[in-house]
Design brief:
By secondary structure, this protein is of the alpha/beta class. The chain is built from twelve helices and 24 strands. 37% of the residues lie in helices and 23% in strands. Helix 2 crosses helix 11 and helix 7 packs across helix 8. It is elongated, with a radius of gyration of 24 Å.
Length: 443
């Protein structure tokens, strides 16, 4: 049976899922209502679920009964904090379209349960609802990390660390997009990122009566921002570096010299090496700003997401499936590099992966005007491609899945080697120390 007919049978449930998740947006590691809704759909369809437990999310396996590779198909559950969004709920909104992914995951799950859906296939499919793709609310996630609930900030990389993806050979998912120049989009990959907080410490004093006795942490932070802007021309174009800080604390009372000021930013780049190089530059200019005023400065660095490299063989096979559904003229295999980031990049480090995009939305990604304007195209289209790709990979004794695995050019030989490398980005350190007339800078 053609993959799109399998999905079409469940049109109503798919579209109901999209609307429910849209109307109940929850940010990362808080998606309990979303999990509850999705889990009921899965369990009503006969799936047995394994829950993450102390964080939202679950997975389930669908076995063909014949040995072969395991395909991992995911849907992200989290929304964004978007209090100005035109349809926000409790200050949140699905301004990146993860509600579409939830609906597509449901469509994939229901379609693969249809009689005949697994005929001629071997191996198995792992379906997974994952939390926390958006790298936001860093302080909240740092609290979860301190409490031993999570180790990593992203849902997929945390699931990988916990072993929920052990045994999976290939991973993919389809993301929504507001692009209008086609129906289905495939890129070469996208940037990785690390999360960084910069905390300046000064000395409080009366802002009018005795400012000479204070050290203004806000001024030091402003100098750090200016110093960062002064080195932007040193960022290499081909490394696609992005550094975009915001100020999260700059003082509380106007007549007191601010003794604390904080910045928060991502450091993005095409490779882990470019991210490390940029981060060292950033530490240097932030330390220099502190020294100029006699302030102290501490940085808190956390690994965010690794650069995504879409697997070359999967690109070809996904394009074939999408062309069968939409028509070749509506599939845009543009081969460009994206400068956003996703934790799909972490999976692409250890297994062949692909993260294409599906039209059907409008507005700006992460914008206050982002809407799902064609849910049939977005949700049923994504589910159809996901089902069709699974069938293509696992048919004929999983010939094509085995080709993907054999041709994969992975950056790490194991997840253990991967975690050993990204853990180098996890740092808490003081950049500047003072002793008498000696200033020590540690980058």
């Amino acid at each position: 049976m053609k993959f799109h007919h399998l999905v079409e049978k469940h049109r109503d449930t798919i579209l109901e899922t999209e609307r429910y998740v849209w109307n109940h947006p929850e940010t990362g590691f808080k998606e309990w209502e979303t999990q509850k809704y999705l889990a009921k759909v899965f369990e009503d369809a006969g799936y047995e679920l394994t829950y993450a437990g102390n964080i939202p999310g679950f997975y389930t396996d669908l076995d063909t009964g014949r040995p072969g590779p395991k395909i991992l198909i995911m849907g992200e559950m989290d929304a964004l904090g978007a209090p100005n969004h035109i349809e926000c709920t409790n200050g949140n909104a699905h301004a990146c379209g993860h509600n579409v992914q939830c609906a597509a995951l449901v469509g994939t799950a229901l379609a693969l349960k249809e009689p005949g859906a697994l005929d001629g296939l071997c191996g198995s499919v792992r379906l997974m609802a994952v939390p926390a793709e958006e790298l936001i609310e860093i302080s909240f996630r740092e609290g979860l990390r301190r409490d031993g609930i999570i180790r990593y900030m992203g849902g997929k990389v945390e699931f990988l660390y916990r072993g929920y993806m052990d045994g999976c050979d290939i991973s993919y998912m389809v993301h929504a997009t507001p692009r209008q120049d086609g129906d289905f989009f495939i890129s070469a990959g996208s940037n990785g990122c690390m999360a960084k907080e910069i905390h300046y410490e000064g000395v409080a004093s009366h802002a009018g009566g005795s400012p000479q006795n204070g050290i203004n942490a806000l001024y030091a932070a402003n100098m750090g921002l200016n110093a960062l802007n002064a080195i932007r021309e040193t960022f290499v174009d081909d490394e696609h570096v992005r550094v975009h800080p915001i100020m999260t604390d700059g003082g509380q009372t106007v007549n007191i010299i601010p003794s604390a000021a904080s910045l928060s930013t991502f450091v993005r780049g095409k490779t882990l090496e470019s991210m490390k190089k940029t981060n060292r530059k950033l530490n240097r200019v932030m330390a220099g700003a502190a020294v100029s005023l006699g302030a102290k400065v501490k940085v808190v660095d956390r690994p965010g997401y690794s650069p995504l490299i879409n697997d070359a063989t999967l690109i070809r096979l996904t394009e074939e499936v999408a062309s069968e559904y939409f028509g070749a003229d509506r599939v845009n295999n543009h081969g460009k590099w994206g400068t956003g980031s996703t934790d799909m990049g972490d999976l692409s480090c250890v297994m062949p992966s692909i993260h294409p995009h599906m039209a059907g939305c409008s507005g700006n990604s992460h914008g206050d005007d982002y809407l799902v304007t064609d849910p049939v195209k977005a949700c049923l289209g994504a589910a159809s491609v996901q089902v069709g790709l699974a069938q293509k990979l696992l048919s004929d004794d999983a010939k094509l899945a085995k080709e993907v695995i054999a041709n994969a050019d992975l950056r790490y030989p194991s997840k253990e080697a991967f975690f050993e490398d990204i853990d180098q980005l996890m740092n808490d350190k003081d950049l500047v120390s003072y002793e008498n007339d000696t200033i020590t800078v540690t980058l």
